[in-house]
Amino acid sequence: MGGEDDARHFQPFVPQSGRPREGIVPNPGLPLREQLREVMRFMHYSPRTEETYWQWIVRFLQFHRVPGQQGRESWRHPKDLSEPEVRDFLTYLATELGVAASTQNQALNALVFLYRDVLQRPLGDFGTFARVQRPPRLPEVLTRAEVTLVLSAVSPEAQLPLKLLYGAGMRLIELLRLRVKDVDLDRRVVTVRDGKGAKDRVTVLPESLREPLSEHLVEVRRKHDTDLAADYDGVWLPDALARKYPSAPREWPWQWVFPADSWSARPRSDGVPGVRWRHHLAADALQRAMRAAVTRVRLGKRATPHTLRHSFATHLLESGTDIRTVQELLGHNDVATTQIYTHVLARPGIGVRSPLDG
User: Fold this and answer.
1) Which terminal Cβ of the chain has fewer Cβ within 10 Å, N or C?
2) Do residues 164 and 258 touch, judged by C-beta distance below 8 A?
3) 171 given a catalytic annotation
């Protein structure tokens, strides 16, 4: 994002009073970006959420830049902005950019977090702003036959992960972050760690995938042994785990179930050689594979990897699975979120006889 480096080096904000909910005061000697990271890591937010919030904060600050000397624009520190500026930015997102309601809410959450937990100056009532009002849309769902058709057309290297995505009802990022220890072939369960809402849950491992997944892990183990012989540094672990278990990044249970084909290098700025590690498979690789398969079979529906999760839920409900069980497998906080799938169950018509049929 343009100008992000300028925002990254804002002078730190030293709070005058009050403490965040979790009781941490960010280090006053750190730049704003690092203060945000410190608080979010303390409160166990995921790195992905951290990056998303920072992007929204940068966009908010970019929106409120003011003209400076020689045609340059000057940044304003968020401590110099308040409720009216937040209101104007949220209105701009709705009226000028036409973002989705969920996108506007995400921006609002990021700014609320910044002011409440980092700057320790909670936002008050910022009045009326243009809220995006869009009715919830029913999810796109494939029939069982369509799922089979699409998965059979997927490139060989993407078939197993996409089949597991459908068979276990996971989100794409949850699938990619699976580690070897999270797959129990004997009990036929998959443990999803740190899913949406920072929750763990257990979901089903399809019986039909036990053997293919077992064979796949043999190949992954062989690749891991080669990595160890080449003295690679391992896989990424969250900071707290990496400190608690310093040898874990190189241990077999912590390896990715679906690793990338090549190593990645994490650069260092202190003259020390970069860290060599193996990342997990990239999300866009599976997205491209799914898109190519949908095109190949001329599906006539827009289907992405997330469509497989919607289809998983709908097909379970069709087969008579209790909605509470489906809720637990999907990791929904509220059963009302799961109930949307009851509106797309595969029944003839909509359960009403047309008057044209007499």
Assistant:
1) C
2) no
3) yes
- pLDDT tens figures, 265-281: 765 444 455 678 888 99
Confidence of residue 25 (pLDDT cuts 50, 70, 90): confident
Residue 353 pLDDT greater than 80, yes or no: no
Choose, from 41, 76, 121, 171, the residue flagged as catalytic.
171
* 166 is annotated as an active-site residue: no
Give me the pLDDT at residue 198, please.
67
Active site residue 45: no
pLDDT tens per residue, range 207-258: 999 999 999 999 999 999 999 999 888 898 877 788 888 899 999 999 999 9
CATH class of 144-344: mainly alpha
Asked whether the beta carbons of 168 and 204 are under 8 A apart, the reply is yes
Q: Is 79 a catalytic residue?
A: no
Q: Which fold has domain 4-118?
A: DNA polymerase; domain 1 (1.10.150)
Q: How high is the pLDDT of residue 4?
A: 55
Out of 278, 309, 310, 315, the active site residue is 309
Residue 50 half-sphere exposure, CB side, CA atoms within 13 Å? 18
Write down the residue that tokens 């809402």 correspond to: 197
Where are the CATH 1.10.150.130 domain residues in the chain? 4-118
CATH 1.10.443.10 range(s) for the chain read: 144-344
- The predicted structure's pLDDT at residue 169: 95
Q: Tell me which of 116, 196, 279, 291 is the catalytic residue.
A: 196
Look at the block and give the residue holding tokens 């260092």: 268
**306 part of the active site:** yes
- The verdict on whether 64 is a catalytic residue reads no
